[in-house]
Amino acid sequence: METLLVTHSACLAHEVPAGHPERPDRLRAVLAALDAEEFALLMRETAPLATIEQIARVHDAALIDHLIAVSPHAGFHRIDADTAMSPGTMEAAFRAAGAVIHAVDEVMSGRARNAFCAIRPPGHHAEPDQAMGFCFFNNVAIGALHARAVHGIKRPAVIDFDVHHGNGTQAAFEKDASLFYASTHQYPLYPGTGTPDEVGVANNIVNACLESGAGSAEFRLTFAELILPALAQFDPDFIFISAGFDAHAADPLANLRLTEDDYSWATAELVRYAEKHCSGRVVSTLEGGYDLAALNSTTKAHVRALQCTL
């Protein structure tokens, strides 16, 4: 079995206003990275459209209906100051959620060892009743609840190393003790959530705050001494990764100082845990990352680690 790459050209058609950091070139940088010869063995499949019923496992029907209703035929419709819709946004959002669902199906079937979803718009800020922070549907949460509803997964876990706290994933998980969410993120920073005292029910939420300027040493110590032990305590049977690469030192939207090696190391730790305890089940999905050169190099590091045979 090989690592699966799931993407769709529709994710490039989600246009944003001039100067917006979450632009189509982000996905082009990711896909260019994975066109390198070293990734020739990746399985490559296109993302289906998620159904409304699949998205409704996480999101209120009123939100889904509203986003469909305000989808513009031309120009942009702003959800908030950061989040804008174009005529291509809704298909991109349904494909992004569908990519994670499809990846879960392929991993559970045994056709893929693990998977990376190269998609946009990202998802981890989207709350059950609100689109925000460049996000419309919470792709990783939708995938986790699909795994539970369709494949009998009992204890899915999401590990999020985006530089911003995934408030949407936390909001979707915090009242359900059979779901686990852990995040490393810069704090204080947008969206202002993710303090250590936000613990959910039965400590199923773990927030590890990193100060501005923190780098490899602080990140790895926090990951090794807080995130991984909490993950083991939860005892998941499927691991999802919210793979944001905006904690990289070159990223313009925050002030952490991670390197490609840090992403490789963190990914390898999660793959190693999954191989020992979750039958290797890992699905990763793209979240943030706004410097194109750094996004290219961190994607390579991340997917290399997913492909590595331990």
Sequence-ordered SSE layout with sheet pairings:
Elements: E1 3-7, H1 24-34, E2 43-46, H2 52-55, H3 61-70, E3 77-78, E4 84-85, H4 89-109, E5 114-117, H5 139-151, E6 156-160, H6 167-173, E7 180-186, E8 205-210, H7 216-234, E9 238-243, H8 260-277, E10 282-286, H9 292-307
Parallel strand pairs: 1-2, 1-5, 5-10, 6-7, 6-9, 7-8, 9-10
Antiparallel strand pairs: 3-4
Can you describe what's shown?
This protein is an alpha/beta fold. It has a single domain (3-307), classed as Arginase, Chain A (3-Layer(aba) Sandwich), CATH 3.40.800.20. Helices cover 38% and strands 15% of the residues. The protein has nine helices and ten strands. It has helices at residues 24-34, 52-55, 61-70, 89-109, 139-151, 167-173, 216-234, 260-277, 292-307; strands at 3-7, 43-46, 77-78, 84-85, 114-117, 156-160, 180-186, 205-210, 238-243, 282-286. The strands form two sheets. The protein has an eight-stranded parallel beta sheet with strand order 2-1-5-10-9-6-7-8, with helices on both faces. The chain has a two-stranded antiparallel ribbon with strand order 3-4. Helix 1 packs across helix 9, helix 4 (89-109) packs across helix 5 (139-151) and helix 8 packs parallel to helix 9. It is globular.
